[in-house]
Design brief:
heterodimer, A: 4-stranded antiparallel sheet, globular, B: mainly alpha
């Protein structure tokens, strides 16, 4: 024991550990990037945003993946869809498929003394680019504007209705020009099966994500719904060779915080066998 | 004969050597006082023999472990320890921010080379310092920096190549911290190693139970296994050669056990136990009292002051959180704090009585 713990041996062991850890990490990267990519997709600034706020202490740059979900439509009213609601497709059946136990005790009454904090699980999430989900969001925004316009016509001087009309117009405009067209549309435990179902690699990305079960108050009782807590790799590092385009774009932004823009660049992103992304090319878009 | 005496009492670690040097200093002071009071008086031959023995022993301890022989040296050593700790924190933070400040200006190849080279350089510096300097202050400082560089190494590789976060990183950091701790005899690194490995084991346990690993902290029971391992490890594998490692293992084992118990005693919803939340809380409250009392008992029995003190702190915490639950809302505040004060007085009386009993027993034994 004493001889085994001699400083010389320990330092040698330390060197071996440092090398082994780095080799394992880099082998993982090489495995991910070798062979045919799992998906190659072209995204724009709408889906891959520059950081909301730049930091003087950090010279690195990573693009943030913006993805959205479509919730169950409440009377066709449009709301800007972010990614923190419960997707319409994420029901009890899907949660059971993902390994959550669903029974009568899953969503007990408000005064239940046995309710536990539910923990999230790993799952593969399918993100669809510029597909049916995006078209539905666009359609709902158009309908919302039509409704706001019709109501305003009847009571033209109503300040609240004027604001609502203005807001609906801005939302439709954002939906057409700057909002992300990447929507989470499905989840599963088997990436292979998901890829069979969504075979188009330039339209569907499969990513590792975190899903959570929650209980939502329904009309008569609590109902089980699923949420996507997070996508595990939602920041993509920009290597130095692509940095020039972003430096130009960053220089255009006068304020410290990023404003909404129509896209100024497009990025070719590849996803490898371990569902980890990397940038394969960047082009500046003419506005 | 004298040489044999020195050899027989040769301490295993620097802490033991320092204790022996302190003991000699106390003995010399006490002998001086006793002689001044004319209780005993050593003759010239005896005095020379004792002085020569102590001189030789201190020289040997100083040569082997660089212990502090005088009070002034001890004070300076404390200053060095504090400076070494602050220096390690400062340098680690500096490395971290330095890299963030400039890493965007390097190509991927250069980034990877710098990231791999930095912990290796830290390890080389630790190795060189450990060989050149007996006190170990610089090796401890460089050891901390090497660990910070290794953490940065794996985190930044993850960011550069968009790697999915994995709890295996905690295993690598934990093993590396342990290696550095044992190589440079550094308690702070040992504590970092225990925490990293506890995080790894808890995350692995969480992942085996089907939850996403990063939420391992939301099931505090995951920490029980690392806590038990940490607490009992020095019992089965003694660490006499290393300064204070036994204490660190035991204290961190207790922290990893009692903090989750304290959380679960107040928040049953995050337990694995499929019982009524109030029942879960009651179970952990009872467990908290029983185990902290058991820790105090074990500490007294085994003469482990660290276990007694940690057990005391948690016993008091369990007691006061219970008082808060029972009386904070129903009692006027002056009465609540009066009860707290009175329980402290009661504890003092009990401890005083225990102390007196202990003293009586030792006097009887002396007779």
């Amino acid at each position: 024991m004493k001889a085994f713990l001699s400083p010389t041996r320990l330092f040698l062991l330390g060197f071996a550990l440092l090398l082994a850890a780095n080799i394992i990490a880099l082998l993982g990267v090489a495995t991910n990037r070798s062979g045919k990519p799992e998906a190659v997709i072209e995204l724009t600034e709408r889906e891959l945003r520059l950081p909301y706020k730049t930091n003087d202490e950090n010279s690195g740059l990573a693009l943030e993946l913006k993805w959205r979900i479509i919730e169950v439509s409440a009377d066709g009213i449009y709301d800007y869809y972010s990614n923190w609601g419960a997707p319409a497709w994420f029901n009890a059946q899907k949660l059971a498929e993902l390994g959550f136990t669903i029974d009568e005790s899953t969503c007990p009454g408000a005064n239940s003394k046995r309710e536990k904090v539910r923990l999230p699980k790993d799952a593969f999430i399918v993100l669809e680019y510029e597909g049916n989900a995006y078209r539905e969001a666009l359609q709902r925004a158009e309908e919302s504007l039509k409704k706001a316009e019709a109501v305003l016509k009847a009571r033209k001087k109503d300040k609240g209705l004027q604001d609502r009309f203005k807001e609906a117009k801005e939302q439709l405009d954002a939906e057409r020009t700057s909002a992300s067209r990447l929507f989470a549309i499905d989840a599963g435990l088997d990436a292979g099966k998901l890829r069979e179902r969504y075979s188009e690699g330039s339209k569907f990305i499969i990513m590792r994500g975190i899903v959570r079960l929650a209980c939502r108050s329904g009309k008569n009782k609590k109902e089980v719904v699923g949420y996507i807590s997070d996508i595990r790799v939602d920041k993509i590092n920009v290597p130095l060779r692509y940095r020039k385009i972003f430096d130009v774009v960053l220089a255009q932004d006068t304020s410290e915080r990023r404003e909404r823009h129509s896209p100024r660049y497009k990025v070719e992103v590849a996803y490898g066998s371990r569902f980890e992304p990397w940038i394969r090319g960047i082009d500046k878009l003419i506005q | 004969m004298k040489r044999k005496g020195v050899k027989q009492t040769a301490p295993a670690s620097k802490a033991d050597a320092q204790r022996r040097a302190d003991q000699i200093r106390s003995f010399q002071a006490e002998l001086e006082l006793i002689e001044h009071e004319k209780i005993i008086s050593l003759n010239k031959r005896q005095r020379t023999a004792v002085t020569a023995y102590h001189k030789k022993l201190l020289a040997s301890l100083s040569g082997l472990f660089d212990v502090d022989i005088s009070k002034r040296e001890k004070q300076l050593s404390l200053g060095l320890k504090i400076a070494s700790f602050l220096g390690a924190l400062g340098l680690a933070a500096s490395v971290f921010f330095l890299f963030y400040q400039f890493w965007g200006r390097f190509s991927v190849g250069a980034q990877v080379c710098i990231l791999i080279a930095s912990p290796i350089m830290g390890l080389v510096a630790t190795m060189v310092a450990a060989r050149r300097e007996k006190t170990g202050y610089f090796s401890k400082l460089f050891g901390m920096v090497a660990l910070a560089c290794f953490v940065l190494n794996l985190v930044m590789l993850g960011q550069i190549f968009n790697i999915t976060p994995s709890y295996n990183a905690f295993l690598a950091w934990g093993i590396f911290a342990f290696i550095l701790a044992y190589a440079s005899d550094t308690r702070l690194l040992l504590a970092a190693g225990i925490i990293s490995l506890a995080c790894f084991l808890s995350a692995a346990a969480g992942a085996w139970c089907g939850i996403y690993w990063i939420y391992f902290g939301e099931r505090p029971e995951n920490f029980f296994l690392p806590a038990i391992v940490s607490f009992f490890l020095p019992y089965f594998i003694p660490h006499k050669k290393f300064s204070g490692f036994d204490v660190i293992f035991r204290v961190f084992g207790m922290l990893l056990f009692f903090i989750p118990v304290l959380i679960l005693a107040n928040w049953g919803q995050i337990s694995y136990l499929n019982l009524n939340n109030a029942t879960v809380e009651a179970i952990y409250q009872i467990a908290g009292f029983l185990f902290s009392a058991a820790a105090i008992w074990l500490g007294i029995r085994k003469n482990w002051p660290d276990v007694i003190n940690t057990g005391n702190v948690f016993f008091v915490l369990f007691l006061y959180t219970k008082f808060y639950d029972w009386w904070w809302d129903v009692m006027p505040k002056y009465l609540f704090f009066l009860v707290i004060g009175l329980t402290a007085v009661l504890a003092m009386l009990i401890l005083k009585r225990l102390r007196k009993t202990g003293m009586d027993k030792s006097q009887e034994t002396a007779k």
